[in-house]
Design brief:
Blueprint lengths: L7 H4 L5 H37 L1
Length: about 55
């Protein structure tokens, strides 16, 4: 999962504000995707659980 972590050290380089904002947006996009995937996994496992019980 290390490759999904945003490179904060890279964002701190004095390359201008646009670079930092791009890094932040990328981090939000990645984080949002992870949250969505986790919800999907939870729903699928819950569905499988109910099917097993039923």
């Amino acid at each position: 999962m290390a490759q999904l972590q945003p490179s904060w050290r890279h964002a701190q380089r004095p390359e201008g504000r646009n670079k930092i904002e791009a890094e932040m947006l990328e981090a939000k996009r990645i984080y949002g995707l992870n949250v969505w995937q986790n919800k999907l996994i939870q729903l699928k496992s819950r569905e499988a659980e109910l099917r097993f019980i039923g």
